[in-house]
Design goal:
The chain is built from 14 helices and 15 strands. With 353 residues, it is α/β, with parallel strands linked by helices. The strands form 3 sheets. It has a 7-stranded parallel β-sheet with strand order 3-14-8-7-6-4-5, sandwiched between helices. It folds into 2 domains: 187 residues, Rossmann fold (3-Layer(aba) Sandwich); 160 residues, 3-Layer(aba) Sandwich (Rossmann fold). α7 packs across α8 and α9 packs across α10. β12, α11 and β13 form a beta-alpha-beta unit. The chain is 42% helix and 22% strand. The longest helix has 17 residues.
Length: 353
């Protein structure tokens, strides 16, 4: 799932964290205060006002994956409540030129609202220009076309609560360590606003809120395939680590391999996003103590709700965030459903019994 959000690089350095330890938060590209997705709800009056209008929607995604499938599911369910027909669902395969073609093709079906994650800020700005001319309402996932203004050009950006994801990872690791110990910090060594903010939120929370825990080793990683190698080197230098934070689930699997290779059953891992290998270790009582995920289904629901409100001419919040959730052995089945709107892998469910 992580790669689905790594493509949204145009906001790097724009989506910010308001510093201040436990009081920090994710804010929008121009410093907008985040509106929780739970506050973006369609009333019975909203649904009645829109249901018989014959409105149509298009979902123009950057790729196809468990993450985008969950976002799609949330959007489709919300649009169905409003009687809005989905006339196009596309997968650009991370290709900005292909996404532009998808937009042009979808516009032929005359959608009244489009939900999309723009792949390239410059290409997308031009590609969506005809939609603006047609009066189509635009709701964006995580990214923004260059020069677009809230209210005039788009209804909202909807994304994860990035600070809360990092903070909850810190809280989960601190709980596993009873608030004291030495930890390693493996962060994403690239300019991606999603991972950068989540990583920094973990570090900030540990430093501000948990004085009994010290980050004694830091290692940047850009290639997940090197995770095992880098973790092994970290463990050689710091064999007494009580815990390790890993920027997302794929490299966390490599860190887990390094721990297993050294016979280390003590060091706890916390990471972000859901994946079968690390979840399986977690439910079997291994090194992984918790996974922190976003609510992808809720992202889609909120995007659709914003789109409906825009169609009704209502004021819409510029920046909406969906909540994070901490998944442990105890709530893995429900956590998977809450995040991705589908069952956890059977191997995980069986092991969790």
């Amino acid at each position: 799932m992580l790669i689905d959000r790594l493509v949204a690089t145009a906001l790097a350095g724009s989506l910010m964290l308001l510093a201040g330890g436990a009081g920090a938060q994710t804010v929008g590209p121009s410093g907008e205060t985040a509106t929780p997705s739970a506050e973006v709800r369609l009333s019975d009056a909203d649904l009645a006002a829109v249901k018989e209008k014959g409105y149509k929607a298009a979902l123009l995604w950057h790729t196809s994956s468990d993450f985008t499938n969950a976002v799609t599911s949330g959007a489709k369910d919300e649009f169905a409540r409003a009687g809005i027909q989905i006339v196009a669902t596309t997968d650009a395969g991370f290709d900005a030129a292909r996404q532009r073609s998808d937009i042009e093709t979808a516009l032929a079906a005359k959608p009244n609202v489009i939900l999309s994650l723009p792949l390239d800020p410059v290409t997308s700005a031009e590609a969506f220009r005809q939609a603006l001319t047609d009066g189509t309402k635009l709701v964006f996932l995580s990214n923004l076309p260059k020069g677009y203004k809230h209210g005039a050009d788009y209804a909202a950006i909807v994304t994860d609560d990035l600070f809360q994801m990092g903070k909850q990872a810190a809280d989960a690791l601190a709980k596993a360590l009873d608030g004291k110990g030495k930890v390693g910090y493996i962060f994403h060594d690239a300019s991606y606003y999603v991972t950068n903010q989540r990583d920094q939120a973990f570090k900030t929370t540990i430093e501000k809120d948990y004085p009994g825990i010290k980050i004694v080793a830091e290692q940047g990683i850009s290639d997940p395939a090197r995770a095992e190698e880098l973790a092994s080197a970290m463990l050689v230098q710091h064999p007494d680590l009580d815990g390790i934070y890993v920027t997302w689930a794929e490299p966390a699997d490599g860190v887990l391999s390094a721990l297993r290779a050294s016979g280390n059953t003590k060091t706890k891992i916390v990471t972000l996003d859901l994946a079968e290998p690390v979840a399986l270790d977690m439910v079997k009582g291994g090194n992984v103590t918790a996974l922190v995920a976003d609510k992808a289904y809720e992202l889609g629901r909120a995007m659709a709700a914003v789109g409906v409100k825009a169609l009704l001419g209502q004021e819409t919040p510029a920046f909406v965030v969906a909540p994070a959730l901490t998944v442990t052995k105890q709530n893995v089945a429900q956590g998977w459903k809450d995040s991705l709107n589908r069952d956890a892998p059977q191997s995980v469910l069986d092991a969790a019994k």
